[in-house]
Amino acid sequence: MNANAYIAALQWHVDVGATEALEDTPVDATAMPEIPRHEPADASQGRVTGGAQANQSASAAGLGAGSQVTGTSDAAKAALALAREVDSVESLREAIAGFDGIPLKKTATNMVFSDGNPEAKIMLIGEAPGADEDRQGKPFAGANGQLLDKILGSIGLSRTAEDLEKAVYITNILNWRPPGGRSLNPAEIEVSLPFIEKHIALVKPKVLIFCGGGTAKALLNSSEGMSKLRGKMKDYKTLTDGLLDTPQAIPAIATYTPEQLLLNPGQKRLVWQDMLRLQQFLLEN
Ligand code: URA
User: Fold this and answer.
1) Which ligand 1 atom minimizes the distance to the CA of 139?
2) CATH code at 45-284
3) In sequence order, which residues have a C-beta less than 8 Å from that of residue 26 and are 6 or more positions away?
4) Sequence-ordered strand ranges (E) for the chain
5) pLDDT tens across 162-171, in order?
6) Least buried of 17, 89, 170, 209, by fewest C-beta within 10 Å?
7) What is the pLDDT of residues 129-142, one digit of tens each?
8) Which residues form ligand 1's pocket by a CB distance below 6 Å?
9) What's CA 62's distance to the chain center, in Å?
10) Domains of the chain by residue range
């Protein structure tokens, strides 16, 4: 190739949005190992059951819409009581929808529960919905979502994949948008933990992706920043006492959020490294 052809190739990459060099040497993506394909499980054996029970759970706990919960610890106890009772992803969704212990519910437009197949073996957890998510009722929507889809796609994963080994089920710690896109406060995390931990227990993923420092700190019970929490596989262990008869330990990887990458493209190479680490884990397990 002559110099003009190289310049044209570089310009093409810039035009399609590839603004960062992720590795010091080129990676031939066509030569990267494929994650083995697994046939989708028989849908009749799905873990999701009907949602009617959530209403019963909510009313049994006295927490249906309109009931009053006072103080953070009351709300956290009420969340725990509800989360203990639900036995399917659908009934968890209904329980959260009817729970009034999180004031953000009043200011949000839509509840943002999840996207993708709850039978997936990979579960990605963000912190909380933003404006696009609030409007669409779907986690990681808008520009964030498009970038997330590209990141997952770089290692052959997708929230819409039929192959459960490649499918990513996506949710957030909090299901309601904090106004102005602020971070969650400790009270909101405390009340949300029983729900997100039960969500994890119901989905039973083989691996978790914690998207963003807030999520990684909350679910790894750590005060360390992302620069310490990312870079190697971690073990997520159930934190909420009394939630599950058998607390869980699930491998987890922490990485930056798409919003952070849009603000700070230099972090793309770190996320790329995280995706390669995740791909390696998936190949080995
Ligand atoms: N960031 C998150 O953590 N979650 C979303 O749903 C969107 C952006």
Assistant:
1) 6
2) 3.40.470.10
3) none
4) 114-115, 122-126, 168-172, 207-211, 234-237, 249-255
5) 999 999 999 9
6) 17
7) 999 999 999 999 99
8) 126-130, 133, 139-140, 144, 172, 211-212, 257, 259
9) 29
10) 45-284
